[in-house]
Predict the structure.
Amino acid sequence: MIRRRTFLKLALSIPAVAQTLPAPAGQQETGVPGKIITVLGPISTDSLGVTLIHEHILVDFSGYRLYNPAGWNDDEVIRKMLPYLRELKDAGCRSLIDCTPNFLGRDPLLLRRLSESSGLHILTNTGYYGGSDHKYLPPQVFSETAIQLAARWTVEASEGLEASGVYPGFIKISVNPGALSEVSRKLIEAAAITHLRTGLTIASHTGPAIAAFEELDILRRQGVAPDSFIWVHAQGADAVDHIRAAKQGAWVSLDGLAEDNADTYVSMLQSLNRANLLHRTLVSHDAGWYEPGKPNGGDVRGFTTLFKALIPRLKTSGFSDDAIHQLTVRNPASAFEVRVRKL
């Protein structure tokens, strides 16, 4: 069933939908290897360009029980967030991966409007967020099997998100820290099944290494190769675990870059570079965002620290232009390419 708010937004934007709809359902997201799926449709991997792989436009922390997608006005969000996206594009960025999952503020029509207005490629996702003591999980997660959950996500990949004409470009899940709970195991199993059906990459908000390696073990048992998996928030682990995961083929994502930790990020990247594993590494800010319920959407952290602080530091630390291109262009394109990755 289409949510009332989504239906109203869709009805108001029918002319735009007609002009920007991607290929008909069943002809795009489940069958376009070599492409990136943006909110405006598929593009070639070569078109992605400099990319931030983990950011947020809007996040609603109310939790599933209180979640109300009518709790924000898209025009107000656009007025607040569009200047930050334009600043990002002026800094040389071409694409932004929005990692806000369903029931935390995922808004495909909002993202499409912002993509059109900013000129940035934007990706959104399918999946469920299982961290924070299951606060954001819908009831079916606890009663359905991994196969049933994967069927839901596969429908979103093949038919679009909430009848919006927008398709997910990756799978976003979250698991509990430490040894995986039964629910977290179910989520990564569902993500594995969905990946095999759709070719969408799995980005898992994970953090500590113990959970990351348990996830990788589950993926292997499902026949899914490690390069389908992005270890989100790997910056909380140490260099030994970064290298171990990258050697297995996983994407090590350092996504908490800020003005006050840029030197730490240089050190982590140096470690991975010395191990010849920069090609398995991703970096971003986990920044933004408009927060419903706060005056004027709350305080926003911009998206340009990578360009203003990290890249200059990398250059003075001996990173070549090609290494920076690897980190900001080639790696994101490879990580988010639609492609089934089997063992």
Notes: The longest helix spans residues 74-90. The chain has a mean pLDDT of 91. The radius of gyration is 19 Å. DSSP finds 13 helices and eleven strands in the chain.
